[in-house]
Amino acid sequence: MNLPTPRIRSSLLVALGFMASTVAMAACERKLQVPVSPTGQSLTVNGERVGGIYKDLLDAISSKSKCTFVFSPVPRARQERLFEVGQADVMLAATRSPERDASGIFIPMVRNRATIISFGSAERKAFTNIPELLKQISVRLVAVRGFNFSPEYLEFLDSMEAEGRLVLEPDPIGVARWLRSNPNDVTLMAPITLYGALMDDERMKDMLDTMRVEPMDDMPWGESGIYLSRTSMPAGTLKYLRTAIQRETRGDYLYKKFSAIYPPFVLKGSVMPLVR
Fold first, then answer.
1. Residue 20 pLDDT more than 60?
2. pLDDT in tens, 200-212
3. Per residue in 11-33, is it b (16+ CB within 10 Å) or e — as a string?
């Protein structure tokens, strides 16, 4: 058996290195557009400055590859629209839905569901299902425009809108401001989103002490994670990025991050690992 000479081995190594470099460069052949809106500690926005768990994740992937991510703060509804029409490559901190599946490949990272959240009197009996809340005609629902946790969630919003009891805000802090002025009203969203937003707002931080989380029996569990666009990215980029994210987030990555940030009452009944 003839073994390669040192010169041939050296040439092979150079060729392999060149091929690996070429593959890495081809994997993300342009800058990837990532519009973001504030989502608790998952995504934080301070002016044009973006941070949070998902931002750190993409930064880690960028440091190990030729991928460059361009983050642009936008309202949640705008973020949704950009992804839908193929002008966004990545959508972060998104709950899985049939509408989003039509536009992208979903990478699940955690199980979650929306709960009722309030800051009113703790003496009020907790809501446990949607019919109970609908009967309380003096209670309005304030929600973030563009949020979508499940078909049941959207159906409930439609019911409240039909009764003139729905208020829409552009972001979680807008919801918190409304609830501070109207403590009899409630919101329906993932508690980590609202709690995380309040953590970073010095003017609203005192609301954390009175936050009340009320899991709803008829709100189903879903999955939250990352969407990659089917239409905006080349197939090679899509495949590469999907693999890189899955490799970087093994072992209940997101749930462990949440557990290190949020108190147990915020997670209980609203967030759990993908595998239990």
1. no
2. 899 999 999 999 9
3. eeeeeeeeeeeeeeeebbeeebb
Q: How far is CA 76 from the centre of its chain?
A: 11
Could you give the CA distance from residue 27 to residue 240 in angstroms, rounded to a whole number? Answer: 6
**Inter-residue contact 213 to 266 (CB < 8 Å):** yes
Residue 114 exposed, middle or buried by CB count within 10 Å (0-12, 13-18, 19+): buried
- Phi and psi of 147, rounded to 5°? -70, 145
- Can you tell me the distance from the alpha carbon of 267 to that of 57, in angstroms, rounded to the nearest whole number? 21
Residue 8 confidence (pLDDT) above 90: no
The CATH code belonging to domain 115-214 is: 3.40.190.10
Distance in angstroms (rounded) separating the CA atoms of residues 224 and 110: 5
Contact, 273 vs 110, CB < 8 A? yes
What pLDDT, in 10s, does the model give residues 211-251?
999 999 999 999 999 999 999 998 999 999 999 999 999 88
pLDDT of res. 27: 67
Q: Nearest to residue 28, comparing CAs of 73, 58, 72?
A: 58
Boundaries of every domain in the chain:
29-111+222-272, 115-214
Task: Look at residues 111, 59, 74 and name the one whose alpha carbon lies nearest to residue 269.
Answer: 111
Instruction: State the CATH architecture for 29-111+222-272.
Output: 3-Layer(aba) Sandwich (3.40)
Helices (H), the chain: 6-27, 53-63, 76-84, 98-101, 130-135, 151-162, 172-181, 191-199, 235-248, 253-261, 264-267
CA atoms within 13 A on the CB side of 90: 27
Would you say the CATH fold of 115-214 matches that of 29-111+222-272?
Answer: yes
